[in-house]
Structure formats: C-alpha cells, structure tokens
Automatic annotation (TrEMBL):
<keyword id="KW-0812">Transmembrane</keyword>
<feature type="transmembrane region" description="Helical">
    <location>
        <begin position="12"/>
        <end position="38"/>
    </location>
</feature>
<feature type="transmembrane region" description="Helical">
    <location>
        <begin position="44"/>
        <end position="68"/>
    </location>
</feature>
<keyword id="KW-1133">Transmembrane helix</keyword>
<feature type="transmembrane region" description="Helical">
    <location>
        <begin position="194"/>
        <end position="222"/>
    </location>
</feature>
<dbReference type="GO" id="GO:0005783">
    <property type="term" value="C:endoplasmic reticulum"/>
</dbReference>
<comment type="similarity">
    <text>Belongs to the class VI-like SAM-binding methyltransferase superfamily. Isoprenylcysteine carboxyl methyltransferase family.</text>
</comment>
<dbReference type="InterPro" id="IPR007269">
    <property type="entry name" value="ICMT_MeTrfase"/>
</dbReference>
<dbReference type="GO" id="GO:0007323">
    <property type="term" value="P:peptide pheromone maturation"/>
</dbReference>
<dbReference type="InterPro" id="IPR025770">
    <property type="entry name" value="PPMT_MeTrfase"/>
</dbReference>
<dbReference type="GO" id="GO:0032259">
    <property type="term" value="P:methylation"/>
</dbReference>
<dbReference type="Pfam" id="PF04140">
    <property type="entry name" value="ICMT"/>
</dbReference>
<keyword id="KW-0808">Transferase</keyword>
<feature type="transmembrane region" description="Helical">
    <location>
        <begin position="125"/>
        <end position="145"/>
    </location>
</feature>
<protein>
    <recommendedName>
        <fullName>Protein-S-isoprenylcysteine O-methyltransferase</fullName>
        <ecNumber>2.1.1.100</ecNumber>
    </recommendedName>
</protein>
<keyword id="KW-0489">Methyltransferase</keyword>
<keyword id="KW-0949">S-adenosyl-L-methionine</keyword>
Length: 257
C-alpha cells in the first residue's frame, strides 16, 4: 500500500455529502444546546450533549484517519456506515435514546422500582448531575485516548482486521510494531478509548439497562477480537511481539478482558 494518498481511491462526492449532512445535524444540536436548554436541570439537555458526543466521535475518526492513516483513509472512515458492526452500533444508539426517553416519561417500571429517584429531577438532582458530568468526562477521556492511539500508531493503525503477511513489508512504516507512547502502557489503547467513550455515554444519560448491556457486549466483542488480533500479531512479529506482551502486560485495562 502506498504512502501517498490517492483521491481516486475515494468517492469525494460521498465524503462531501456525509460532511454536509453531519454539518446540518451538528448545527441543529449546537443551536438546540444554546437556545433550547436553560440549565443542567433540564432533563433533555443531556440528550443534546449525547448528540454532540456522537458527532464528535465520527468527526474525530475521519480526521485522525486523514492525518495519520492517510494511505488507507476512505469515505467509510467516519465509521457511520459501510463497516462491519455498524448496524449493531446503530441498534445500540436507538436503544440508548429509547431508554432515556422512556425513563424520563416514567415508563420503565423495572428500573424505576430499583432506582425510584433516577428520573426525579426535583430530588437531589445535583447528585445525578455529578454522576452525569462524570460520565461525560469519561466519554471525553475515551475520545482522547483513542485519538492518541491512532496518532501514535500512525500508518500501522487500521480499522479492519487483516491477516498479516509474515514476510517483510516493502513499507517499513506500515510494518512497524508500535511499542512507545500510550502503547507502552496498554497494548490496545484504541479499544480502551472506545470502551470508555461508550460507557461514559450511558453513565451520562443514567441508562442503567443500556450501561449493563453495553459493558456485556463490548467486553464480549473485545475479548474475541483481541485474542484473534494478538495471535495474528504473534504470527507476524514473532518473539518481538511476545516480548512486548511481557513488558506491557495490560491488554486494555478493562476487567475480564
């Protein structure tokens, strides 16, 4: 794969349309945040912030790819569509919005039974707000960690699982094992960043059901993906990666993975 970006590899009109639509929806979210919400006690302000976080993730994915993986960036690098797992991702977003709205309308009796004041903003609402701000900070931290991972890994980073060729690559930059920076402390920081981002959102929205579901799905997914990926990396780098595993023992800093 060439180090030089070739615009013919991408449908620039598709990229423009994606950016245009995102620009419209992002503008609507910002205007709603500025004009439609008066304080943190407004029960729907966090849904608007959730929308901004969602936009931020898509935008950062494409910016990071265009800056640091410019040889492989495509119109699908937003991770909005056209990638494996996109359908499941959007199903989870629909469930996220559904739980948030139904909880505020008092329709989720099972959750309200065990957390009777979770939707009651007149009852010590600042305690819930502190938890929501904590969730927001975790989500932002996740975006930052993922950004660092993509920046540090550079051309070696890829959104797709590719069976590596054990033979030496003509491109020393794509073939390089990254062990410095944030990779010195955790072997899969991009996954850690995404995990924190998703979990932070559910905490911010106080979605108890989706928080549990998200933790289960992400832990199951990353456990399988990381095991496969590390086997492929051992096949590619041999003792070099085994030594890296021994010096950097933390896969992702997530329990049970």
């Amino acid at each position: 794969m060439s180090l030089t970006y070739n615009p013919r590899n991408n449908n620039l009109l598709e990229i423009f349309i994606t950016c245009f639509i995102m620009g419209i929806t992002l503008t609507i979210s910002i205007i709603t945040l500025l004009l439609g919400t008066s304080s943190l006690s407004n029960k729907y302000i966090w849904l608007v912030i959730y929308s901004l976080l969602l936009h931020g993730f898509f935008i950062l994915e494409f910016i990071n790819s265009s800056l640091y993986q410019y040889n492989s960036v495509t119109s699908k690098s937003f991770l909005i569509y056209g990638n494996k797992g996109n359908k499941q991702f959007w199903y989870l977003q629909l469930l996220t919005i559904w739980e948030y709205l139904l909880l505020r309308l008092g329709k989720l009796n099972v959750i309200v039974k065990y957390f009777p004041n979770i939707g009651n903003w007149s009852w010590s609402w600042w305690w819930w707000t502190i938890l929501q701000i904590f969730g927001l900070l975790i989500s932002l931290l996740g975006l930052f960690i993922r950004h660092l991972a993509m920046k540090t890994c550079g051309l070696s980073f890829n959104h797709y699982l590719i069976t590596p060729d054990p033979s030496p690559s003509k491109n020393q930059y794509e073939n390089k094992l990254i062990t410095h920076g944030i990779y010195k402390y955790v072997r899969h920081p991009s996954y850690l960043g995404f995990w924190l981002y998703c979990i932070g959102i559910q905490l911010m929205l106080l979605n108890i059901g989706n928080l549990t579901l998200t933790i289960y799905i992400l832990n199951w997914f990353f456990k399988i993906r990381i095991e496969y990926e590390e086997n492929q990396l051992i096949n590619k780098y041999g003792d070099k990666y085994i030594n890296y595993q021994q010096t950097t023992k933390r896969k992702i800093l997530i329990p049970l993975i």
